[in-house]
Every structure is written in C-alpha cells, then in structure tokens.
Amino acid sequence: MRAAFHVQLDELIIDLVRMTRLAGQMMTNAAIALHQRDLALAAVVIAKRDQMYAMHDDTEQRCIILLARRAPVAGDLRAVVAALRAVAHLKRMGNLARHVALIAQIKNPNPMTADEVRPVLARMSLLASQFAEDAAIVIERQDFGSGSQLVEADHEVDALRRHLFDILFAEDWSHGVEQAVDAALIGRYYERFADHAVAVATEARYLATRRMPEPYGLKTGGRLR
C-alpha cells in the first residue's frame, strides 16, 4: 500500500509541474497581449483558465482520494496537504494571468499604459513568468537551491512595484487617473503571481523532504491573494 501511495504522489508531482508551466505560459501570453494589444492572444489566455480549473479540480480530487483510501500518516500526510496547497496557489496564478488578459481586452484600442511605466511592467511580467518556470524546475528536479534564489529574485519584483508607484504618484504624472489605476492593477497582478510562484516552490520543497519548509512563500503582513 505504501508503494502505491508513493507512485500516486509522484504522479501528482508530475501534474504540478504541468500546471506550473501552464500558469507561466498564460502569464507570458497575457503580458504579450497587453503590450502588443493582441486580442486573439488575450482570448486564448482567458480560455486557458478553464483548463487550469479542470486540472486543479482533478488534482485536488486525487489528493482527497489519497487521503481517504491510503490513510497516510506523519510526513506522507503532510506531503499530500502540501500538494493541495500548491495546487491552490497555481489556480490563483491562472486567475491572475486571466486578469491581465482581461485588461488587454477591455482597454483595446486605447494604449494599455503610459510610456513611463511600460518598461517597468514589462520587466515585472518577464520576472513573473520566469518565476513560474523556476518553480517548475524546483518541483521537477527537486532543486531547492533554485527555490532560495527565487526568494532573492522576488525582492526585485517588490522593488519594481515600489518604483512603479513612485512614477504614478510623481508630480509630473500627466496621464490621468484611469491610466494610473490600470498600471497599479497590472503591477499588483504581476507581483502576486510572482509571490504565488515562490509559494509553490516552498510546498515543493516539503513534498520531497517531508520537512517543514521555511515560510519564504509568504511575505510579512498577510496571506497571498
């Protein structure tokens, strides 16, 4: 029974890698759709959210079946719980990518953001997408050193968001409230996506080691949303 449990857990881990890469691709495409005003690509991202939900529901159900039928104990039990937490973060990542794609649709044909903030948002989107791939590598290769590097890289995302607000609240901002709100929202989505990717890497560490990970997936001051 224990051998069967670990086979099923390994299958769950493979699916987590697939979901993480799907989330990263969704965010990449959403950012491209936003900055290039590509409505067709935005529609693809929005449609992919349903695929992410289906994968989430399937993985969640399999975790519940593992808990019910295999009755894991101690570290194995906590590993299944870690998988459940990881898949919840991945579902949220899919939602955030969809939010960016929706902005690309709603704001068309107007410019997405002012020139002053476009490079900042472009860098944030690149980092967010890369974080998803890095998290997938952590899961796939059990490369926990990469997980620690993710935490360090996440500081750049935070710094970029602070820089974004410096631009938006500067006295010489001349693009109005609507563009400021749009830019702030987009920056928020990229930042939270990156945070969730770091949290996924945290859960992956626990899946493999069965040891309680350092809480680097959560920032001081509250839960990920």
Number of strands: 0
Low-confidence stretches: none
Give the total of domains: 1
Proportion of residues in helical segments: over 70%
Strand fraction equals: under 5%
Whole-Å distance between the termini?
A: 37 Å
CATH topology: Methane Monooxygenase Hydroxylase, Chain G, domain 1
DSSP summary: helix tally: 6
Q: Identify the overall geometry.
A: elongated
CATH top level is: Mainly Alpha
The CATH architecture classification is Up-down Bundle
**Mean pLDDT value:** 86
Largest sheet report: none
What's the alpha carbon Rg, rounded to whole Å?
19 Å
Order of helices and strands: HHHHHH
Q: Please, what is the CATH homologous superfamily?
A: Phosphate transport system protein phou homolog 2, domain 2
